[in-house]
Amino acid sequence: MIDRDLPLKKEIANNIKTLMKLNGIKNQIKLSEISGISKSTLSDYLRLKTLINPGNVEKLASAFNVDKSDIDPSFASPNRSNQTVTIAAHIDEDLTEEEMEEVRKYIEFIKSQRE
């Protein structure tokens, strides 16, 4: 059977992984504690087993302090691109903690410009 949601599941999983890196969250247990979503449910999202539900998109967005569309692109308005996660997905893993903090500050600056 073909999983028609697979491309969306992959994008959501990549977004969650990227946001975990950006926020210094090293494992699913810590993300579970912060978000209130069970570790097994988070594992299912990251292993592409299930599609995230809107309530958990909200919980993760709140935990990461980002828009829901930064988790699940289907929440994006037609005029807004998913710039934060797109930029973050291209960050090399060899950044120092200070460099990563500068990236976080820049992302917050960009977000503040839309208010």
TrEMBL record:
InterPro entries: Cro/C1-type_HTH, Lambda_DNA-bd_dom_sf. SUPFAM superfamilies: lambda repressor-like DNA-binding domains. This is Transcriptional regulator with XRE-family HTH domain. Coiled coil: none annotated. It comes from the Bacteria. Residues 16-71 form the HTH cro/C1-type domain.
